[in-house]
Amino acid sequence: MTSYTLLLLTLLAFASSRALASDPSPLQDFCVADNTSQVLVNGFVCKNPSDVKPEDFFFQGLDKAGNTSTKLGSSVNLVNVQKLAGLNTLGISIARLDFAPYGGLNPPHTHPRATEILTVLEGTLYVGFVTSDPNKLFAKVLNKGDVYVFPKGLIHFQFNIGHVPAVAIAGLSSQNPGLITIANAVFGSNPSISDDVLAKAFQLDKKTVDWLQAQFWMNN
Fold this sequence. Notes:
This protein has helices at 3-20, 182-187, 195-202, 206-213, and strands spanning 74-79, 93-99, 105-110, 116-122, 125-130, 137-142, 147-150, 155-160, 166-172, 180-181. It has a five-stranded antiparallel β-sheet with strand order 1-2-9-4-7, with no helix packed on it. The protein is built from four helices and ten strands; from the N terminus they run αββββββββββααα.
């Protein structure tokens, strides 16, 4: 194999890995999502540019606190491409997170398509993520103005350890980051995972697994 061919193959492999590593890159100034289209593509079909309006790039409401009177004591308002059509192909979204005092929790979860960067605006949060094998925990207490990053696909959480409400803003590296809340996925899937499987995986008796599966599991 000539050095030229080897170089060409290396460049092609690199380009392919970059293309597959994140949301599709825009090939024009913008590609506002046409949420009315019935065409199925990886993402959303572009709206006709002549029909695009300033409102397609606009969202309001992140100044309003979310309802934290829930079992988890937290609320997440995610602005993704479904809420802001102009995000289509731009590979970014944003969320406001509100936490009740004394234990508001955004439970362990993962975003399969996005890295997350979180900034605390008010309050004190205990946050962390767990790596793949050997499952090491990286955790930190954050105060107002602090920033923490959660790598793509890793399980992470945020917990209010303060005596006042906490507020944070998160940026995510996908127009549609996805959400898998661990407890919900394992014990609240539809249809349910076999209790034989879960009993052995978690080293629990089947009655305990059945009780867990009967609970109301909620997403933020």
